[in-house]
Specification:
- The protein is α+β, with helices and mostly antiparallel strands.
- The protein is built from six helices and seven strands.
- It has helices at about 1-5, 10-15, 45-55, 90-105, 110-120, 165-175; strands spanning about 20-25, 30, 65-75, 80-85, 125-130, 145-155, 175-180.
- Strand 6, helix 6 (about 165-175) and strand 7 form a beta-alpha-beta unit.
- About 20% of the residues are buried.
Amino acid sequence: KRDVFFSSRWNGLNKVARGLFINTKTNEIVARSYPKFFNYEEGNNTIDWLKENIVFPVNVFQKYNGYLGIVSWNKEKNDFFIASKSTNQGDYAEWFKSIFFETIKNNGQEERLRSWFSVCKNNCTLVFEVIDVIHDPHIIEYNENKIVLLDVVENTVDFQKMSYEDLSCFARDFKFEFKIS
């Protein structure tokens, strides 16, 4: 909820719950994103914590300035599951949905992506940075709405994601802009 975000009342559970969607009837993970992470000297992200926890080699990527968009496959509805970081309803989810569908229709990949999810049974989530110049402008100015593929994350309890090499091949194949190292 917003009060946790603005008051920094993070704990182990709500840090993991960010971007995690579970079908409560089947207890299956429908979609997942990143656990909550912090800026330097925010939360427990201090120099001492980094010294003890950072794992080398470290990969650095360009930071895009938008909000989180999440796409996976809803098996029950046989259709995309589309959400923002905390809900599949509301303004941000709807704005993302509009930009997502515009993108996959314009690049001619909607049916291929539907097939990739449903026929191939890929149980994962596409994680995007959503740049929405109309509804959610940020400090960094962009000329147009767009989505940038950040990662493909497995819908599993333990966080696992596609390698950067595989991500870049996937993104090129489906004509998505993707994060730059």
